Amino acid sequence: MKIKSALEFSHQLLSESIVAGDTVIDCTTGNGHDTLFLANLVGKNGTVYGFDIQAEAVNNTKALLKKNHVETDHIYLYNISHAKVDEVLPDETMISGAIFNLGYLPGGNKTIVTYPETTIAAIKGCLSHLCHNGVVIVVAYYGHPGGEREKNTVLEFGSQLDQKRYSVLKYSFLNQKHFPPILMAIQRID
Amino acid sequence: MKIKSALEFSHQLLSESIVAGDTVIDCTTGNGHDTLFLANLVGKNGTVYGFDIQAEAVNNTKALLKKNHVETDHIYLYNISHAKVDEVLPDETMISGAIFNLGYLPGGNKTIVTYPETTIAAIKGCLSHLCHNGVVIVVAYYGHPGGEREKNTVLEFGSQLDQKRYSVLKYSFLNQKHFPPILMAIQRID
After folding, report:
1. Which residue, A3, A109, A190, B27, could crosslink B82 as a Cys pair with Cβ 3.0–4.6 Å?
2. What radius of gyration do chain A's Cα atoms show?
3. What is chain B's alpha carbon radius of gyration, rounded to the nearest angstrom?
4. What is the least distance, in Å, from the CA of B54 to any CA of chain A?
C-alpha cells in the first residue's frame, strides 16, 4: 500500500460519504475529472451541480462526461463563480458532499486562479446545504502567486469552525518540496 | 461515515501495510491495545516486539494478550526504553510497521512521559529496519507539560526526511480544543 495523495484521499472520503441518489457539488469542475467521479457515485438518480468561472473548463467537463457516456440530464453545469452556489441551489436541497480543487485550470491559463474571498463564500454556501455526516473537501494547489495566501485563508476558516458542528481534518505531506497539494475536509457532525 | 480519528487512522494504515507473517514493533505498549492489534495482524507466524519503560505497562500488555487468548511465543515484550529498539532487533530483521503513542500511560502515572530525544532515537531505530512500503506511525498526545515540544520535535524530524526515501504524512484536526492527538506516518518509498 502507498499512503494516498491528497487527491486520492479526497476520492476516498467522497466514496465513503456519498451514496447513489445523493445531491453533490463540484465547486471547480476544471477538466471534469471530479464531476465524472461524482456522477458515477450518485448515479442516474442523483444530482451533480458543477461550477467553474471558465467556459473552457465547463466545455472540457461536458466533453469528458460525453466521452464516458454519462447521462447528463441530472448534471447541472454553471459557467459562473462557485461563490453563487447558495443562489443556485434550491433552499431545501441538502448535499452529502462537495469538492474544491483550488488553483488554476490544469493545462489552461495559469493566470486565472481561484481567490480566497470567493472560495470562502463558496465553502459557506456548501456548508449551509450540508447534511449530517456530509463532507466539504478542499484540495489546495498553492504553488502559484497568491496560492499560499488562499491556502492559509481556507485553513484559518476551517480552524474557526465550531467543533460541536463540524470536524475539520487537515491531511498534508511534510517533507515534499514544490508545494504538494494539501487537503482539508469539513464534516458536519451535528 | 465518520472521518477517522488519529487513532483510528493509525489502525487503518497499519492494517493496509501489515500482512500475516510480518515483523512489527509497538514502541509504546501502554495498556497493550496496539500490541494486541498488531499481534492479530501478523498472526502466529509473525513477530511483535514491544517496548515500554514502565513495568506496569508491560504487565498490563501481557494481561490483555492473555485475556484475548493470544499465543505469546512470538511476542517479545521489553521493559526498556524504545530508544534501544535497534540494539534489540537482529541486524537483518526487517519490519513492515511500527507504532508510537506518545504521552503518558492512560490510567497510569501522568508524570512518566515519553521524551523527544529517546522518541527520535527510537524512530531512527525503526527506520533502519523498515522495509519498502513499510510505515512508522506516531500518534502524539501532547496536552501534558513537554508534550508540545515533543510533538514539534517529531514533526520537525519528519519534515527533514529525504523525500526520495520517505513519504511523511501529517493527519490532524484543526478546530478541536483540548489537544486532540495528531498522527504522523512515515512510509519508506525507496
Report:
1. B27
2. 15
3. 15
4. 32
Q: What ipTM score was computed for the predicted complex, to two decimals?
A: 0.95
CA distance A130 to chain B (A): 14
Instruction: Tell me the C-alpha distance between A17 and A36, whole Å.
Output: 16
* Residue A153 neighbours by CB distance under 10 Å: 16
- A175 and B184: CB-CB below 8 Å? no
Question: For residue A120, what is its C-alpha cell?
Answer: 470562502
- CATH number (1.10.490.160, 3.40.50.150, 1.10.150.20, 3.40.50.300) of A6-188 reads 3.40.50.150
Residues of A within 8 A of B133 (CB-CB) are 1-2
Residue with cell 513537554: B146
Q: What is the pTM assigned to this prediction?
A: 0.96
User: Which residues make beta-bridge pairs with A49?
Assistant: A25, A76
For residue range A68-91, what is the model confidence (pLDDT) as tens digits?
Answer: 999 999 999 999 999 999 999 999
State whether residue A91 is helix, strand or coil: coil
